[in-house]
Specification:
The chain is an alpha/beta fold. Helices cover 44% and strands 16% of the residues. Helix 1 runs parallel beside helix 2 and helix 8 runs antiparallel to helix 9. Bound molecules: ligand T3D. The site of ligand T3D has 23 residues, from helix 2 and strand 6.
Length: 269
């Protein structure tokens, strides 16, 4: 029997789903098979109303080394005169839909970065809502090292996360950025000791799973949308979204629990 390319496990009574990229010998780099399994696993988590938080991590010593460069369908053919591969097709068929799926998940997504995250693997992690990395992990915008530009949302994410000056330095130089430095400059949420990574990510996921899911997802969406709005438009958007939140059961529950001095039990999704 062949090993699944994505390992799937549930915890916290099925409210937290962990997806582990599982091609450790090739540092969990992407093949079309891994793309298909990851997208299907994300679709399944999105459709399962008991899931309230997703954790994305890698097996072995890496998080993900980006595109599998040994894949003959994307690597340049060394035969003189061979036609170049259509990488635009690869991006719009695989990486674009993966980013779109992650950024529109109906639940929060935590990346537990257990080792190197390079190329598309780095930006896959940065697409997640909260990124926690082990101290030995690193982030590498490896694209320019092989004559490419950041993809998997990198051109959109990097300047928003760390500002244009740092984004360009990180992307142009393609240097290895240790997890501790990534946390210091605000590229990721947190860097923890390697031994504490799994427990830290699990605790974070468990906490998020107990929070008002719709409000968390609307927060992600509102913040992303506000990047392209002026203040007046952002304020109008806040009013629109808050009206929606005000009609949800979670708001009623949050206020009732506050008044009763008890822990809230949020159920909306
Ligand atoms: O191309 C398109 O379709 C467009 C889409 C592009 C999206 C992208 O992601 S482009 C960027 C692709 N990724 C990279 O360029 C990263 C390549 N890998 C590395 O630079 C290094 O492996 C790392 C910095 C990630 C880790 O270095 P290190 O020294 O810890 O490990 P290593 O020895 O280089 O790799 C270990 C094994 O994994 C090795 O295999 P072996 O020799 O033990 O059989 C290595 O070949 C394999 N591996 C690592 N990365 C990839 C890979 N195999 C295939 N593809 C990889 N990306």
């Amino acid at each position: 029997m062949t090993e699944p390319l994505v390992l799937i496990s549930d915890s916290d009574s099925g409210t937290v789903r962990t997806l582990s990229l599982n091609r450790p010998a090739a540092l969990n780099s992407f093949t079309t098979g891994l793309h298909a399994e990851l997208l299907a696993a994300l679709e399944a988590a999105a459709a399962d109303r008991s899931v309230r938080c997703v954790v994305l991590t890698g097996t072995g010593r890496a998080f993900c080394a980006g595109q599998d460069l040994a894949d003959p369908s994307v690597a340049p053919d060394p035969t003189p005169g061979a036609a170049p591969k259509d990488l635009g097709h690869v991006i719009s068929t695989y990486y674009g839909p993966l980013v779109a799926r992650l950024r529109s998940m109906p639940v929060p997504v935590v990346a537990a970065v257990n080792g190197v995250a390079a190329g598309a693997g780095a930006n896959l992690a940065l697409c997640c809502d909260l990124v926690v990395a082990g101290r030995s992990a690193s982030f590498i915008q490896a694209f320019t090292r092989i004559g490419l530009v950041p993809d998997t949302g990198g051109t959109w994410l990097l300047p928003r996360l760390v500002g244009p000056a740092r984004a360009l330095g990180i992307a142009m130089l393609g240097d290895k950025l240790p997890a501790e430095e990534a946390a210091r400059i605000g590229l990721i949420w947190q860097c923890v000791d390697d031994a504490a990574l799994a427990d830290t990510a699990a605790a974070l996921a468990s906490r998020l799973a107990g929070m008002p899911t719709r409000a968390l997802v609307a927060t992600r969406e509102a913040m992303a949308a506000a990047q392209n709005l002026d203040l007046g438009a952002a304020l109008a958007e806040e009013a629109r979204i808050q009206r929606e939140m005000g009609h949800a059961d979670d708001y009623r529950e949050g206020v009732e629990a506050f008044r009763a001095k008890r822990a809230p039990v949020f159920k909306d999704r």
